[in-house]
Amino acid sequence: KHFSPLVARSLEERRMDLPLTPDQQELPDSIRRFTAEQVTQERLAEWERRPEGIDEGFWRSIADLRWLGLGLPASAGGSGLGLVDVACLLSECGRGLVPLAVSTAVRGADALAVADADAAELAKLASGAKRISLAIEEERATEPSAFTSRLAGDKLSGEKWYVQHATLADFFLVAARESNGIALVLVPSSGVEIRPLRGFTSGDGQSTVVFKNAPIARRLCAAAQGEALLSRIRRR
Asked: 75-86, pLDDT tens digit by residue?
């Protein structure tokens, strides 16, 4: 009610109605029932005391419910559902006070699937055995043209800021510059330096990740395709 009439009209013009199918409606209903039962005041207090903001028992529970692979290809052990289904999941996670580590994992896995739908790592991300975080923004740069992180051959150097739950990640999906464009690469978390940033709560889990000539696992696209692919990931 505090929006100006101009802003309110603009929002109304852009509003989209996305009616849910019966199956899609069942998904948020089931998530809401689960969170009402599992996300108790006692558990919230425990998570607040943990640097990672989540406990292993809850992580295994949501992995068994196949939340982590909801939008991933069925060929990779996911459920093969669409973006609306993933949006329903994340919306209910927010409503139910599910730890942000879950949405970080879902977003990271989705981004990897966009970059490489046949990635071997997707199966372990879907099962919860491995985790991935996006390492895109820098301290003074959000646009690719201003990135200072650089890829030289198969070695990465630079810093990525505001990386969510870096201490939990087994891999990072990183955007870095090279001579002919933006490279998107998969980087193991071993051998990188992680500097936690102070957030509003311990569950924010933001860090600076420092890559010092860090070896990459592999490229996810040709450099000439990197900026367009990054734009697609961000739009999702």
From this structure: 999 999 999 999
